[in-house]
Records
---
Amino acid sequence: MGKKKKAEKKPEKERNPDPKWEEIMAKVAINGGALKDAVDVMKSDFDVVMTAVKQDGLALQFANPDMQANKAIVTVAVTNDGPALAYAADALRNNEKVALCAVRQNGSSLEYASLKLKDTRRVVLAAVAQNGVSLRFASEALRVDREVVTAAVKQNGYALGSASRELRGDAAVVMDAVNQYGMALFHATPKMKSNREIVLAAVIQNSNAIEYAGHALRENENFTIDAFEKGAERKFGV
């Protein structure tokens, strides 16, 4: 048998001898935003930009368009700082894997995803799991979706304000919301604001929620005293 050929070593990339290049590399390694002050050619250099976004994902805004369209660069940027998605090329803002990296880091990054991805359940569910309030950036179709809205209000009750009117009048959804944040009662429908169990849960979680209760419950002294006492028991264990 013949001898196996040794794998050829890939030539190492030569270091740029320009001292200014070394200087900017050192700067962006400790402050990615320093990319802003780099000369234009450096803003298109893969190594320089990658070093910058590893330190600060938002440094992507200072990169040239060719780097903002580079999937590897953008993925690192949004993994570090989800909102860096705002500076990615349109094609990458429409890339599900890139968008998932962004919303898992910061759910509100959903704002910068494409319309298609704002209507993609997997992406929106990941966003609301990280930050329920990001529901406001989801498509209208998904703000009517019980599973999506429930996930959002369980993470942050105030997300109820971005749900469809139908779900803001759904007892189970509203209960999940006020159990997480009593003041979410503000966004419930009038019928839910007059629901004794829901208002009780809201006031137990946050006594200030009583101001959003329906008139009859708000003026019911026995109810309010009972709700405040139960709230104190929960808060102070008395």
---
Amino acid sequence: MHNAIYAEMVDAGVAEKLERPIFTDRDGNEVPEDDPARHGLESEYRTTHPEFICFADETGCNTSQKKDGNFGGRKFICKKGTKPQQQASTTDHPFTVLPFTSATGEAVCCVVIFQSNSDAVPLQWTSGIDHFVPVIASEAEAEDGTHDFETNMGAGKRYPFGPTCQYNGIEVPCLTYCSPGGGISGEILVMILKKFDELKLVPRDNGVLPFLLIDGHISRLDPSFLEYINGEATILQRVTQKPHVVAVIKR
């Protein structure tokens, strides 16, 4: 499986095959096998354009904390004969977090998918809330216990929105979407990649293909996704992998 992936990386132009296997340090410099700075096993491949390589894998979550249980044997001090209790959310709302990271080690983008039958994500879901930041309110609002939502939106404010990434000198916002089950779909994958292309995250004029390494979830075989990554202007070298299964889709 790994050899098939490395071969596709070479074909995309993001890696090269060496004449002999070598050991490297964390920065990719060749080192002897017994060098304390050696990192990992020897390899006959080396990445040449790590900034063109992205990885993505989603994690399903839920806002309800009822079933979180004890955290790693953590103990709390409380009065004898009583049980420690913490305030927690019991609202059942599934969502998915899909982070994109680069082979350079940098964060590329944070994607959050909420469960909803609506096409648009409500603003209150995307804004987030930082309880440690006081609200900005006029004297009248302060007396009424209210505040203007828009005035308190933005970085460093009460409602900071999701994490923004800086990649290849480009600001990448947190992307939010909805799906009936709160999970990933082929249509959402296409919208994510369209946003990346709109931002021009990776150059497409030097003969090197962007390389996306993802697992074999059924959404990766959606016709709309396959059509998009094989388009003339949006071609993407893509490898999906699962245990004992490797599927390579390219134009």
---
Amino acid sequence: MCESMCPETEILERIEFKQVNRFEMSLDPITNVLSPDPLKMIKRFTRLSGETQTKTQDIRSIKALTKTCEYIFKTLIPTQISLHGKSIFGDIYLFIFDRTKSIRQDVIRQNFKTENQLQTENFEDFLLVVNIYSQIIRFYIISSHLLRSAPTQIFDRTLNYNEIYSSLNSIHIFYKSILKNKNSTLEMKKGYIEFIEYSILLELVKSNAYSTNRLTLGHSINTFLNEISEISGNDQISNSPTIKVQLVIKY
């Protein structure tokens, strides 16, 4: 498997055909010109057809994907905002939107979407996957706020919501698998509830945008609330004021 942020074959190909994003470049100290930096290159998203054969060496391991997320969210974004201010966020969003889709694609290629795959020996990998998806979902949500007034060519609200929805569906599966394991903890329950609450908020947003039937909306939200109650048990670990306010306003 690939243990870097971008497979070597893609690095060579994109450099040759001049398909390197500016966020994957560094300033050459000699020429003072931006040049491709293989250490900054991140595998881009490629839509696969049914006949496409994925080479094992082109799929990043869970540890490599974890390292990629850490670089994106702890180094790339803070550095770019520090250098150029918040106005750079729209440009960097488009880059990260593509690269996070590629990250999720590599996770799915390793069959992490199946509950039966979780065994004691790869429990830690499931936790890493949850952490990867957690960061990505929060990025999509923050972007929907920061770029709410941006033009469509920079921020497509519908596409962004679709990615939130898809990512939330996946993280629900991951967490359900984790919580069935004997090694699960109270903190993991709290983590899952955070994303169930995001799902409730997303349902409320969708209902405003598409005038969802109140009965249908109520059924969806009650399903999520029942799940929170089941997970919480007697622990009372969910007390989100945001959710309560939204539900009061809606109903």
---
Amino acid sequence: MGDSKISPHTSAASFLSSFIPDAVVRRFRFSPTGVKHQEIDEIKGAVLFADISGFTPLAERLYRTHQQAGNELLTAAINDYFDLLVHQTLGFGGEVVKFLGDAVMIVWNEVGSQSLEKCAELAAQCALRMQECKNKHDLKLKVGLGVGTLYEIIVGGVNGRWEYFIAGDPLNQAFNAEHDADPNDVMLSPTFYELLLSAGLGPKIERKSKEIVSVKLKSLKDTLDIGMLGYLDKRS
């Protein structure tokens, strides 16, 4: 029988990949020699931005009751909640791009035969499932969704150090939609909503004089048939 032990190099690579966005892991899998220059790749995809609500009150409550030990309890609480969200993300084929304090940014992109509409479907389903995740500290989530053209960017190069990030209008869409959300809300950008409509995946509501700022998604069937939708207009 052959040696079934995992080599130190394989073990280290697996460990390090858990800290790196999947897009970067793929990049080095196809080009293991490393980055030689700055890169920009255009992709189509959906973006989910989720922000944990209740972080500050929880931090204050834990400090009052546990003093310095409250910091460790707070870290454990946030990590436990993020574990639940990441589990849902992986289940729906999303890729965690970055954790931003008590927020997380996730992307679904067109890979293989997966269409932009399918990216939107998976992102919306994941967002709704995230809102069903329960935690013992009653933390809540505000979610915004955007869709369209994204740019995967690798910059840097000083002393061999590189930085990966994504940019594009879908990020602004998701950030603005999340800003319009209340705890437990999933908000769609107008572009995200219009994509569903153009694909015949939702009802169209006439808005003759007022612009739709964000759309609240309340339910989404497996067939991507939108159920009840609420509308938010900042000028109403």
